[in-house]
Amino acid sequence: MITRRNALKTTALAVSAWATVPSLSLRAQNAAPIAAATGPFKLPAMPYAFDALEPHFDARTMEIHHDKHHAAYVANLNKALVDFPDLGAHPVEHLLADLSSVPEPVRTAVRNQGGGHYNHTLFWQMLSPKGGGEPKGDLAQAINASFGNFAGLQTKFTDAATKVFGSGWAWLVWSPAGLSVEATPNQDTPLSQGKQLLLGLDVWEHAYYLKFQNRRPEYIGAFWKVVNWEFVAERNHTARQ
Ligand code: MN
Hints:
CATH superfamily of the largest domain: Fe,Mn superoxide dismutase (SOD) domain
Radius of gyration: 21 Å
Strand order of the largest sheet: 2-1-3
Order of helices and strands: HHHHHHHHEEEHHH
Bound molecules: manganese (II) ion
Distance between the termini: 70 Å
CATH architecture of the largest domain: Orthogonal Bundle
Number of domains: 2
Helix content: 40-55%
Mean pLDDT: 88
Shape: globular
CATH class of the largest domain: Mainly Alpha
Strand content: 5-15%
Largest sheet: 3 strands, antiparallel
């Protein structure tokens, strides 16, 4: 039962809470979509229509994934760095490549939200409606050298993506030691370990649950049909320069 005294106390608490964070109430009144969050980091436009990867990846998942999930990483990164404008002047990949130089109070936010922003920005480009098939040229040679053949890469990558426990990513990365397959938890990015991302697969449930529910292996199978090998080849080329 709510007594008058408790009710007054609750109201007083609520009032003081609003008074200390006036910007929150302003934001609520504006009800701006999360994608319109202001700050130095911007949500990049999708390089193709949401339904362009059908029937492999469905339009609704792509839309929510980009407009809600990726947008939230961007908005939360901007929010976290409000008091660190000099950090916002750097491209996010600079911050992630040298996390130890990011001030401790915002290091976790940069790692999680900045990692989410960076990983997704590349992920959209790693997919294409004209994707699938097999890599060619220098990239194919590099894959053969490291994994025996393309099937060797596919097996290793699929295995890594399947075994990610909980939320995370599987990657094909370049480092001075050569190409390798890795997995990272959460939004950690191999860039923070000095490795360049060539190809990645988001295995957070938000990336596949609407269409595939718990069937992650089917989602991984669909992924191979939309891999943008031209973009991966470009990344491989750039990484070696
Ligand atoms: Mn995601």
